[in-house]
Amino acid sequence: MINNINKITRLKLTNSMLESSIFDQLVFNTSVNKVFIFIVNLTSHINNIPTYCEYLSSQEKTKANNYHTEYLSNKYIMSHGILRYILSFYTKQHPQKIEFNYNEYGKPFLKNSNIQFNMSHSHNMVSYMIALNCRVGIDIELHDKNLNV
After folding, report:
1. Among 74, 78, 98, which residue's Cα sits nearest to residue 87?
2. Strands 34-41, 125-132: parallel, antiparallel or unpaired by DSSP?
3. How far apart are CA 114 and CA 136, in angstroms?
4. I want to staple 10 with a disulfide (CB 3.0 to 4.6 A). Which of 26, 37, 121, 138 is the partner?
5. pTM (2 d.p.)
């Protein structure tokens, strides 16, 4: 529930936007009531898989290699590499240097940071939510117009 958040910034990140200075406008400015939402279509990031793979920890690389198909492995590499890229802006660290801890359910959180985040994916779309001092959650689902509910 986002009833105490006074500013939500939504961005659709394309491959070219990751290369540009889009992040210059995405600062918290000491405001704890600000949330950033990123929506990414992974199909526009396929050419960056080697770069995103470099961002991953050794544990994440092992997990990516354990997927049964290259398609699923690549989705994991892209979604987690992009997450690390986004978090690197806020933590002022190289994406590979970011350290995660995990709660009892396996949900990651940043080690030694008050930056909170969440990620959701459905088919080729991934959404990310970033906040300061505020637990966040996000969920996306593919809307199938052919599904008769």
Report:
1. 98
2. antiparallel
3. 12
4. 37
5. 0.81
CB contact at 8 A, 117 and 130: yes
- With b for 16 or more beta-carbon neighbours within 10 A and e for fewer, the 109-125 pattern comes to ebeebeebbbbebeebb
Cα–Cα distance for residue pair 66/44, rounded to 1 Å = 24
* Nearest Cα to Cα of residue 43 among 18, 68, 78: 78
Question: Which position has the token pair 């400015």?
Answer: 29
| Three-state secondary-structure class, residue 100 | strand
Give the three-state DSSP class for 65.
helix
pLDDT in tens, 11-63: 555 554 454 444 555 555 555 677 888 888 899 899 999 999 999 999 999 99
